[in-house]
């Protein structure tokens, strides 16, 4: 730890043993999380010979880096298509979810308005009462969404948690801002767009991340409702190839063999990367306590 | 996310009345004033009712001799509680119940304290830079899917994983923890810790940050060392949050996560990995006994609801704030 650290006058000097134990636990924790990611990344960037020589995952970076596995992966039509499917589902789903949730949360941030309680309870009860897997499955199949991407998006489009986080933030905005805008003749949509939304950028960013990650990671809805494997998203392909090590059944009756270890690790990397890219933009808000502020009301 | 999730509606609901500005006007006046708000809520209500509350009514199949093709939900015969009777006599259902509860108890002991300790560690770091770096690292796995987490664990601890690779290279025998039913409970708990303990620390960090620093100073001036301050100020300071989360976990005892178990069921076998949710899937959707699976799901839902209400009641009796209160 640096010497510039501020410590209150009454605080004892840290003991050497204490510092060492703390330092060691930080290193261990960081390694437990980062080391697997490092060796997976390195393996995905290694040539087939390097992987063979290592007899599995590559730990030492001495043998050079190649994008061979990524080239192979993108030549595999199954992976490429599933990647595009995932990007599409994530983009469309996130836009739908964020728009619907922001509008809904704004309407919920005005107690005493017409129908407020009905809407509020419809959302809050989602925390304690769940429809159950089978009824939802039967319903989604019955309304003809089988083999449609809507079957993935619509059932998860509204997260009660995200709506409540947004609502709590909207309610913390000073009432005077609303009043003055309304006196100036602004309608609700205008208040939301010109006053509430700009003030809520941080919380909207966090909610967007949550939704985007949920769509990107979702494989179970696709597994339940998409019989046509050519429509499968990346997470489901990842499950089949990497977790199950099984060939992917093709709609045409052909099956494509599971890929080599390096290519598998490349698929893992592609599945991780969007989270890694978006994360730094949003994580500062966690530290600022956007969520906690909302949660603690 | 389960922890902060459930706390919020209560607080939010509790806040509501104070914000009501005027006495309630006639409903027509309010409708005329508030229709834009209703318009804004409409898409959300459509999705919430269309994909949550309306399908919830489909739980009626749990009481039917459900024939998906010939009868459907309106044409199938009602059979009362037959499926539930069969359920309680079904050894596989009992096993799912026992496994679920065993995993809940195990994780209560071995998972639950981890986010607290992590938060204490992070909070005790005097360097803001170091703390922020550590936070970035430990929150990260929360955003990985279970598919990814299991793929990563497989590559580390599986039969062909890194650990076995290293052991074999040094003349030992390889291990395969990914397919060993005996150690499965340890495996799923480590996975849960790896993925979620970091993010779970957020709420404790917030509670720690809310403790008044003057208390520490006063205690220090009175001669309390760091351990006594931890015991007499820090822990009591975060006790309400600990109690709250403990209660939430108890109320959620039947939920141990579906994906994690579903994804590993074929590798370790159903003996060790069958939990409530996988039982519902396999008995209902996989075999096509929708009515039977729905009965299992409904049983879980009802017991879960009762547990949550009971846990909340217990919290109030213990003088804690609980998850929600009547506003």
Briefly characterize the structure:
Chain A: It is found in: Cell membrane. By secondary structure, chain A is mainly alpha-helical. Chain A is built from 15 helices and 2 strands.
Describe this structure in words.
The complex is a heterodimer of chains A (297) and B (327). Chain A starts with 15 loop residues before the first helix and ends with a helix. Chain A has 2 domains: 16-66, no CATH class; 71-296, MetI-like (MetI-like fold, Orthogonal Bundle). The model of chain A is unreliable at 293-297 (pLDDT under 50). Chain A is globular. With 297 residues, chain A is mostly helical. The longest helix of chain A has 32 residues, at 77-108. In chain A, helix 1 packs across helix 14, helix 3 crosses helix 14 and helix 8 packs antiparallel against helix 11. Chain A has helices at 16-44, 48-54, 68-75, 77-108, 116-124, 133-142, 150-153, 160-171, 175-183, 188-199, 201-217, 220-225, 234-243, 261-288, 290-296, and strands at 248-249, 255-256. Chain A has a two-stranded antiparallel ribbon with strand order 1-2. Chain B has 327 residues and is mainly alpha-helical. Chain B has one domain (82-317): Orthogonal Bundle (MetI-like fold). Helix content of chain B is 73%, strand content 1%. Chain B has a two-stranded antiparallel sheet. Chain B is globular and about 75 Å long. Chains A and B meet through helix 1, helix 4, helix 5, helix 6 and helix 8 of A and helix 1, helix 2, helix 6, helix 7 and helix 8 of B. Chain A: The chain crosses the membrane at residues 20-41, 83-106, 118-143, 149-170, 191-216, 261-282. Chain A: InterPro entries: MetI-like (IPR000515), MetI-like_sf (IPR035906). Chain A: Keywords: Cell membrane, Membrane, Transmembrane, Transmembrane helix, Transport. Chain A: This is Carbohydrate ABC transporter permease. Chain A: Residues 83-278 form the ABC transmembrane type-1 domain.
């Amino acid at each position: 730890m640096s010497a510039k650290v501020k410590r209150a006058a009454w605080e004892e000097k840290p003991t050497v043993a204490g510092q060492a134990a703390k330092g060691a636990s930080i290193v261990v924790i960081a390694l437990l999380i980062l080391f697997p990611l490092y060796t997976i990344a390195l393996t995905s960037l290694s040539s087939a010979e390097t992987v063979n020589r290592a007899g599995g995952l590559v730990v030492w970076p001495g043998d050079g880096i190649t994008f061979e596995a990524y080239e192979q992966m993108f030549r595999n039509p199954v992976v490429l298509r599933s990647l595009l499917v995932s990007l599409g589902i994530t983009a469309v789903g996130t836009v739908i979810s964020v728009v619907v949730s922001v509008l809904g949360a704004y309407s919920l941030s005005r107690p005493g308005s017409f129908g407020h309680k009905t809407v509020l309870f419809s959302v809050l009860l989602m925390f304690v009462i769940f429809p159950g897997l089978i009824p939802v499955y039967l319903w989604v199949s019955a309304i003809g969404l089988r083999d449609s991407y809507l079957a993935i998006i619509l059932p998860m489009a509204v997260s009660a948690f995200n709506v409540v986080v947004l609502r709590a933030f909207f309610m913390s905005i000073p009432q005077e801002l609303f009043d003055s805008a309304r006196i100036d003749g602004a309608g609700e949509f205008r208040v939301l767009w010109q006053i509430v939304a700009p003030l809520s950028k941080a919380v909207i960013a966090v909610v967007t991340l949550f939704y985007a990650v949920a769509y990107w990671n979702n494989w179970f809805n696709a597994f339940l409702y998409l019989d046509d494997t050519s429509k499968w998203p990346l997470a489901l392909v990842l499950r089949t190839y990497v977790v199950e090590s099984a060939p992917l059944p093709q709609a045409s009756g052909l099956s494509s063999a599971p890929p080599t270890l390096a290519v598998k690790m490349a698929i893992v990397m592609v599945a991780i990367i969007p989270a890694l890219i978006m994360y730094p933009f949003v994580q500062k808000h966690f530290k600022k306590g956007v969520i906690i502020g909302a949660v603690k009301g | 996310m389960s922890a902060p999730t459930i706390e919020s509606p209560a607080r939010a609901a509790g806040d509501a009345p104070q914000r009501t500005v005027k006495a309630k006007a006639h409903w027509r006046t309010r409708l005329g004033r508030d229709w834009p708000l209703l318009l804004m809520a409409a898409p959300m209500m459509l999705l919430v009712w269309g994909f949550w509350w309306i399908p919830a009514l489909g739980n009626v199949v749990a009481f039917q001799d459900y024939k998906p093709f010939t009868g459907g939900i309106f044409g199938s015969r009602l059979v009362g509680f037959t499926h539930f009777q069969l359920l309680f006599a079904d050894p596989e259902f009992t096993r799912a119940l026992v496994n679920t509860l065993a995993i809940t108890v195990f994780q209560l002991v071995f998972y639950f304290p981890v986010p607290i300790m992590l938060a204490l560690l992070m909070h005790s770091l005097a360097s803001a830079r170091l703390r922020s770096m550590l936070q970035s690292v430990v929150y990260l796995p929360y955003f990985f899917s279970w598919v990814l987490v299991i793929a990563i664990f497989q590559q580390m601890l599986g039969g062909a994983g890194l650990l076995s690779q290293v052991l074999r290279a040094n003349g030992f025998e390889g291990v395969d923890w990914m397919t060993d039913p005996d150690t499965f409970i340890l495996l799923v708990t480590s996975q849960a810790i790896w993925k979620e303990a970091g993010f779970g620390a957020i709420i404790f960090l917030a509670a720690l940050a809310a403790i008044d620093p003057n208390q520490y100073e006063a205690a220090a001036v009175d001669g309390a060392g760091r351990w006594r301050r931890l015991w007499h100020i820090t822990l009591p300071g975060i006790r309400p949050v600990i109690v709250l989360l403990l209660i939430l976990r108890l109320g959620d005892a039947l939920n141990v996560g579906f994906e994690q178990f579903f994804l590993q069921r074929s590798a370790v076998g159903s003996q060790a990995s069958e939990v409530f949710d996988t039982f519902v899937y396999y008995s209902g959707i996989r075999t096509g006994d929708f009515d039977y699976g729905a009965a299992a799901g409904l049983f879980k839902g009802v017991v879960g609801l009762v547990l949550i209400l009971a846990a909340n009641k217990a919290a109030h009796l213990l003088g804690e704030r609980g998850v929600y209160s009547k506003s």
